[in-house]
Amino acid sequence: MWYHLGMTMPHAPRVRSGRRPIEAPPSWGERLRATRHLPRLLRLVWDTHPRYSATMVALRLGRALVPLGVLWVGKLIIDLVVGLVSGTPLPPRFGVTPLEELWWLVAVEFALAGVGELLARASALVEGLLGDLVANRTSIQLMEHAASLDLEQLENSEIYDQLERARRQTVGRIGLVTGLLAAVQDLVTLVSLAVAIMVYVPWLLLLLALAVLPSFLGESRFAALSYSLLFSWTEERRQLDYLRYVGASDVSAKEVKLFGLAPFLVGRYAALSQEYYEANKHLALRRAVVSSLLALLGTLGYYGAYVAILWLTLQKHQSPAGPFTIGVLTFLAASFRQSRDLIQRTLLTVSQLVEQSLYLEDLFSFLAVEPRIRSGAGAVPVPSPLVEGFVFEDVGFHYPGQERWAVRHLSFRLRPGERVALVGENGAGKTTLAKLLARLYDPSEGRILLDGRDLREYDVESLRRAVGVIFQDFFRYDFTIAENIAVGHIARREDEPAIASAAERSLADSVVARFPARYQQLLGRRFEGGVDLSGGEWQKVALARAYLREAQLLILDEPTAALDARAEYEVFQRFAELTGGRMAVLISHRFSTVRMADRILVLQGGELREEGTHDELVALGGLYAELFQLQAAGYR
Questions:
Q1: Which helix (H) or strand (E) element contains residue 556?
Q2: Residue that wins the pLDDT comparison between 312 and 71
């Protein structure tokens, strides 16, 4: 069932026994090295929308100066009020009476508070819009890069885990930039407050640092552990996503119901999710306890400073900036409290930025994966028309991490205009051979020639335009019928006559005729208005993709497996007429299909055992004849 779902799984999901230990968190050196990606992220954000980026920076800097202004105006207001109440008001300033000055100061404080709110709202708006744009751009980059990688790389579980972690980083990366700007904003505010505190009581700054350091170190440690937990559970979280999909999807619903798979899937999901929950809960409890204790230390430091400021005020301490008035008391207390919060927040933000840079490592390291199958320098386009065709010279291939050869010692020729059938038992290497022809893989040994040149000398895109492949496990897109056909040659998606012609050739036009919306009918049950097709109907749509492509080589892997006998006969009658002059490779277990081929290659264990026409191979009395007799006996 796993492969029927159109998804690649290296193995069935498994549940780990016992609690899985969290991997050791990255060292400080590893964390700091990860910050090398920050400039690249900043360039990405700036290039996405320079105007939004500049506005975001300006708004943050404006917000950074508001707190000091509010606190200082508040100090002036308190001193004025104390003077007015005590009957010893300050002398008139700025050409106004103390009472008038008081109301002006209230108006200024109100204006500063209003400006701060407006700047915060504007900042949130700009950062939200920019975040959406950055997420979109990163997602596009990820999709484009994944499409450029080799099939072999995408089938590698380690790279697929890397892709999964990278995919999770496409959304929210703007948060890293805003976090960086927030740290700068807090730092600017902190410097302004620190200067004011230093003018009155310089040694308070040392107490301030001691008040926040324990909490910072604790949070840094647990942030690193959180990353390690997510990193070490990447595969399991991917399995959870997969089990959710299988257990609640229209694609698997029939088998889930008929085979009674729901308890099995739910049980496996419940066991794995509970194991992950326990690991996460254990870490969360440790973090909550330790963070609470460290926060108490910080609170003690703050109240120590508060008591010191009260004592200095009661003693009418004289500082270089003037006497300790009630206004100075409130200003220093508020400044110390805000400075403590700012230092703590800045240090934690910096720590989180370093940790988040580890997630950037996941994103950019995936984007740095280079495909091995690519056009080399001086690559040439595939000639049209082909003159000599394909030649396999002692070709062998085995999948990465596997010792068994998928195919080996293959030597044969595929000439222009020739129709060749591949026959063999499951696992004989037929589909692998088709992938080698399309250069989805490169041979592990030997070489493949096309018109006398090594296949690796051709431009990859040109080669794949010249080859049309429809695999047995073709993908069923939840698109319209027209779009499902157009994926065979997506550049022609607006070419309605060409799409209709391809549908007619594959007999998919009979499917189209069933729906009032015709080619605009949405397929699949995922979206509203969509309809599903039978297996044979989907196969006709898939065949239309191959006809739309009009490639020089057409490869059909079990093209009629889901068709009834009459439909199969009609399809191949049409196929024989339409492939005249073009190379065609048929992979099929049905001997009624392969008889129409000009030549049949019989594979066994990945090696070429027999070659010839149907009559020649039957007369030979070898493997082909044996398989033919076995199948024919079923119809007697």
A1: strand 553-557
A2: 71
Residue 275 — φ and ψ, nearest 5°? -65, -40
- Residue reference for tokens 């254990």: 282
Region of 394 (left: φ > 0; alpha: ψ -120 to 50; beta: rest) is left
Is the pLDDT at 396 greater than 90, yes or no?
A: yes
Cα–Cα nearest to 470, from 575, 545, 524, 571: 545
Q: Both tokens of residue 383?
A: 């000639």
Q: Is the pLDDT at 175 greater than 70, yes or no?
A: no
Task: Give the whole-angstrom CA distance, residue 58 versus residue 54.
Answer: 6
Give the Cβ contact number of residue 149 at 10 Å.
19
Roughly how many angstroms between the first and final C-alpha of the chain, as a whole number? 32
Average pLDDT of the residues of the chain: 77
User: 């990688």: which residue's tokens?
Assistant: 149
pLDDT digits (tens, 9 = 90+) for 3-15: 333 333 333 344 4
Nearest 5°: the CA angle 220, 222, 225 is 115
Tokens for 188, please give them: 């600017």
What lies within 8 Å, CB to CB, of 41 at 6+ separation is 173, 176, 177, 360
Phi and psi of 441, rounded to 5°?
-130, 155
Are 470 and 542 a contacting pair, CB within 8 Å? yes
Q: How far apart are CA 463 and CA 467, in angstroms?
A: 7
Residues constituting the chain:
636
Half-sphere exposure of 331 (CA within 13 A, CB side): 30
Given a contact cutoff of 8 angstroms between Cβ atoms, the answer to whether 303 and 154 are in contact is no
| pTM for this model (two decimals) | 0.63
Q: Give all domains of the chain, ordered by start, each with its CATH number.
A: 28-367 (1.20.1560.10), 390-633 (3.40.50.300)
pLDDT, one tens digit per residue, over 238-252 is 777 777 777 766 566
* DSSP-assigned beta bridge partners for residue 604: 607
Residue owning tokens 């003159």: 387
Q: Specify the pairing of strand 390-397 against strand 407-414.
A: antiparallel
Dist CA 552 CA 575 (whole Å):
14
Asked whether residue 19 carries a pLDDT value surpassing 60, the answer given is no
Please state, in angstroms and rounded to a whole number, the distance separating the CA atoms of residues 428 and 606: 5
Q: If you write DSSP's letter for every residue of 172-195 in order, what string do you get?
A: SHHHHHHHHHHHHHHHHHHHHHHH
Alpha carbons within 13 angstroms on the beta-carbon side of residue 192 total 20
Name the one residue in this structure whose structure tokens are 């335009």: 465
> Residue 447: left if φ>0, alpha if ψ -120 to 50, beta else—which one?
beta
- Give CA–CA dist 487/476, Å, rounded: 11
